Sequence to fold (253 residues):
Amino acid sequence: MIKHSPLWASAVVVCVLLHTGAAMAQDLGAPNLAAQVVDPTAPLKTFILQNRYSPSVWGLDDRQNDLLFQAGIPHVLLNMPNIFRISVPYVTSQPLGERGLGDVEIVDIFLYQKGWGTLALGGVLSAGTNKGPGVDTLSVGPAIAAVFRKNKWTYGVFNQNFFSFGDISRTQIQPILAYTLNERVSFAIGDAQYAVDWNEGKIINVPLSAQINYIARVHSQPVRFFFNSQYNAVNEPGTRKWTLSIGAAVIVK
Fold:
C-alpha cells in the first residue's frame, strides 16, 4: 500500500529532473513549432478538439467515448509569463450509459524560462457534475513542471495534485518525452497521466502511450493534427483499457 504523501513524491521527481537535466541540457535558442507543441509549458495559444475512443474498459464488457475541448492561453500575471489552460470533456458513450459534461479541469502556471528549458509552478482546479449526495466534485491543488530541451529531444515531467475536503486525494504525473524530426513532424509519449489515488493507497493508471504530431498550414493558419494510442497497464475496474485519440489543434500566433 502506498503511504507517502503526493507532495513528497512530486518533490522527489522534480528535484531529480532538475539535478540531472540542468547538467545535460544546452541553450538551443527558440524551438520551432513542432518542438513547442510537445512541450506543455510552451507559451502557445492553442484550441484543441479531440475524440477519445476506448474500445475496452477494465472489468467491463463495454466501451467509452468522449469529445475533449482544450484551450491554452498565454498571459502575463504579476509581470511574469503564465499559461491558462482549460479542459472540457463531453461524454458521448460510457458503460453506465450516462452522457453529458464531464469533469472540467483548469490549470494556471507561472513560467520560469531558462536556456535549458522551463520550470513551471502554479495550481489546478477540477470541477465535476453532481455525482450524488456526499460525493465531492470540487478539488484543487498545486502543479509543478520541469521541461528540458537538448538537440531534437524534449523531456521532463508535469505533476498535478487534486485535493478536496472529503474523498478526493489524487496525484497525476505526466512524463514528457518527445523527438522533433523536422519542422512538421514530432513523436511523443503524449498526454500520459500516471495517476495515484492516495485515499485508496494505490496506483490506478499506468499508461503506455505513443503519439505522432504533424504541423500543417490551412490557408496560412498552422494546425497540428495528432494521433495517440494508449494502454493502461493497471487492471483497475471501470478505467479505460485501450484509448485511441485523434484530434486537431489550431495554433494562434
